[in-house]
Design brief:
689 residues, alpha+beta, CBS-domain, eight-stranded mixed sheet, 21 helices, 25% strand, elongated
Length: 689
């Protein structure tokens, strides 16, 4: 009984199932790829999509490769047809099995597969019921055929396929191009390999006695050959025919069923008597007619037609002049074809944009850029960007999917159905927050990687936000200035995610170079420092970055500091005001080439910062800092809000090797760097590769 209940539940919910159409399009007819070859004025792929929709399947994945942009431009999100389309695009040909593997990230349950070059009128409900009743993981549909197929005829034994053979005299069963797989199929397909279902996977499953065959006695046509393509056109044309004794109601049903705005009224010999379409039916009803009337009362009895032997150029000219549907008749007046006026598909652009945003080191003033401090006391920060970056690529999609692939988190890429499905769940929340604020009206893929892992005090979160804003705004064709970009990045953290933090990192990522920043309750002003090249080179030769471990949680440290400011703790406020003074002094030293004092000021800055909270430092950090001072560093400071990350040391170049070896002996990781003078940069590219 329980087994029957489970089966009933599976069949009842089958309409939630997803389908993959292998619309990869390698063959051609009339210079068109298979999926887009026109059948009664509509691409072949549209007929397949409508078949699935009629059977309740509305979540459809199109596996595309050749001329993918043309397919994406025509079908878009699929909403015109009442379905949700997702595109799984191959960068290189992957074969029928490889294409399915490529779509794995969009699939989490049993799913249908349709070959892109065949059409089957299979009862999907019965097909799914068979699959579930056999507890099958892999089921293919079968039909009887007089012709063999490229990958052999099927030997079936008690519903299991045991072999594929080349000779029709052994079996007349063939694969009809509709499959039902459980996710287990992905275990049989190597990633990013060109693999065929028919050549590689099905024979293997048959040998393992795992492949089931479902026979159905229904319509099937593979349009790969010219003769079968024309036969399919003829069969579809037959669905437009209506006898002269039928009613307007029958015509309405036929138009709705085919979704082709044309009915051909014919006699028993299929001679054309007239035509009907939605406009003519409306006019008939407005004149007082009703849907039970005979079609002859509503049809046009002398439609424009041409002979089958008419010159193709003449037919094209007639269609260009405004005729939308042109019946083609033989010498006896019988309908043999219909030509449709089809608007040329405008191939949309799906741009690929890359970019990078620099990380930064802060010399002094960190903490004074917190809003609840500078609105009352004013803030001052001095920092510089370095040649370590957050990197990103964004690709506009034709569907609504948002795909985020980042090295920040392990595991598979995050796949989100649409912007309306964004949820903060602790995984890539900052990226989601930026997307939510930006509100793109298109789907996209976002690929991100970092030179330095986050949480090391180099402002990577802000750089990441600024980068994503810049990439999205390019696709949205919005042109934000530096202040607006920084504002959106700050809003994503502070307002959307309630993460406490200052403003300097966002501005540094946008502007780049050496910056002196002033903050107050009314405005923020960024002063780029134009330093001479020899000053910059000399400064770089005096600095060392050492990673001490323990990625920090800036939100935790900033919350403690904000609480102190809110409680108006005089000591903390005095320390922050002193940090402002140090930032100004360091600026003056850089502008006057006074390097002797910078080390001392960094040391003083660290001591003030360290006193702001007991969580800023710890015994491990203190050990690193003391090791640095004992081995030639004039001073230094921990970057970021505290608890871990990088220490910036200022030392004599003559002491550099000594300092480096000493820090490495206590477990430090030295990172070489140079200064970066540009802010976030983005650029379009022509190809994904």
């Amino acid at each position: 009984m329980r087994e029957e209940e489970n089966l009933y539940k599976a069949i009842k919910n089958y309409i939630k199932m997803k389908a993959v159409i292998l619309a990869r399009g390698f063959g051609t007819h009339q210079k068109e790829i298979f999926p887009m070859v026109l059948i009664t004025g509509k691409p072949f792929l549209e007929h397949q999509i409508r078949f699935l929709k009629e059977n309740g399947i509305t979540e459809i994945i199109l596996a595309v490769y050749h001329m993918a942009d043309k397919i994406k431009s025509y079908f878009g999100t699929g909403h015109r047809w009442g379905v949700n389309l997702t595109y799984s695009e191959e960068e290189v040909p992957l074969g029928t099995a490889g294409a399915i593997k490529n779509a794995e990230k969009y699939i989490d349950d049993a799913f249908l597969v349709l070959n892109g070059d065949s059409y089957s009128q299979i009862n999907l409900k019965d097909f799914i019921e068979f699959h579930k009743s056999k507890r099958s993981d892999f089921t293919i549909s079968l039909v009887k055929s007089k012709d063999s197929v490229p990958y052999g005829n099927v030997i079936l034994k008690e519903s299991r396929i045991i072999d594929f053979v080349d000779r029709r005299n052994i079996s007349d069963l063939i694969n009809s191009g509709v499959y039902l797989f459980e996710p287990r199929i992905f275990d049989y397909i190597e990633h990013e390999k060109n693999i065929s279902l028919e050549k590689n996977i099905f024979p293997k499953l048959a040998k393992e006695n795992l492949l089931y065959g479902y026979f159905y006695n229904g319509y099937f046509m593979n349009i790969e050959k010219p003769e079968t393509y024309y036969q399919f056109k003829k069969d579809v044309l037959g669905t437009l025919l209506l006898r002269e004794y039928q009613t307007v109601k029958d015509a309405i049903y036929k138009i709705e069923k085919s979704n082709i705005d044309l009915v051909l009224i014919v006699n028993e010999q299929k001679k054309l008597l007239g035509v009907l379409n939605n406009k003519l039916i409306r006019n008939h009803l407005l004149r007082g007619g009703n849907i039970e009337n005979n079609v002859s009362e509503a049809m046009v009895k002398d439609p424009l037609t041409v002979n089958v032997n008419e010159d193709k150029n003449k037919i094209a000219e007639i269609l260009r002049e405004g005729t939308h549907r042109l019946p083609i008749l033989d010498d006896e007046g019988r309908v043999v074809d219909v030509e449709f006026h089809v608007e040329k598909i405008k191939t949309e652009k799906f741009p690929i944009i890359r970019g990078k945003a620099p990380l930064r080191i802060s010399f002094a003033g960190g903490g004074t850029d917190l809003s609840n401090f500078f609105k009352e006391h004013g803030g001052v920060v001095i920092n510089a960007t370095i040649n370590k970056y957050c990197h990103g690529t964004i690709i506009k999609r034709a569907d609504t999917k948002i795909i985020i692939d980042s090295d920040i988190t392990p595991g598979k890429a995050v796949v989100i159905d649409s912007i309306n499905h964004l949820q903060y769940d602790g995984k890539l929340d900052l990226i989601k927050a930026v997307i939510k604020i930006m509100q793109p009206d298109f789907g996209f893929e976002l690929y991100l990687h970092n030179d330095i892992p986050p949480g090391r005090g180099l402002g990577s979160s802000a750089s990441l936000s600024v980068l994503i804003i810049s990439l999205l705004s390019y696709l949205q064709e919005t042109h934000y200035n530096e202040y607006k970009t920084a504002e959106i990045a700050h809003k994503a953290e502070i307002e959307e995610l309630k993460i406490r933090g200052g403003w300097q990192d966002q501005y540094a990522a946008v502007t780049g170079g050496f910056s002196f920043m002033e903050f107050n309750g009314e405005k923020s002003i960024i002063y780029p420092l134009k330093l001479k090249e020899d000053v910059i080179n000399e400064l770089n030769s005096h600095m060392i970055l050492c990673y001490v471990g323990n990625p920090h949680n800036s939100d935790e440290h900033q919350s403690v500091l904000e609480k102190s400011i809110a409680e108006n703790e005089e000591e903390k406020i005095n320390q922050l005001n002193k940090l402002k003074e140090i930032a100004i002094e360091i600026k003056d030293c850089l502008l006057t080439n006074n390097f002797e004092k910078i080390g001392e000021l960094l040391h003083e800055s660290w001591m003030k910062k360290r006193s702001l909270s007991k969580n800023v430092s710890n015994p491990k950090i203190d050990t690193f800092y003391e090791t640095g001072i004992k081995n030639g560093a004039y001073g230094g400071k921990l970057l970021g809000s505290g608890g871990g990350g990088y220490i910036l040391f200022f030392c004599s170049p003559q002491k550099r090797n000594q300092l480096k070896k000493a820090l490495e002996r206590v477990g430090g990781e030295i990172m070489d760097f140079n200064f970066e003078f540009n802010g976030t940069k983005i650029w379009p590219v022509k190809r994904k590769f």
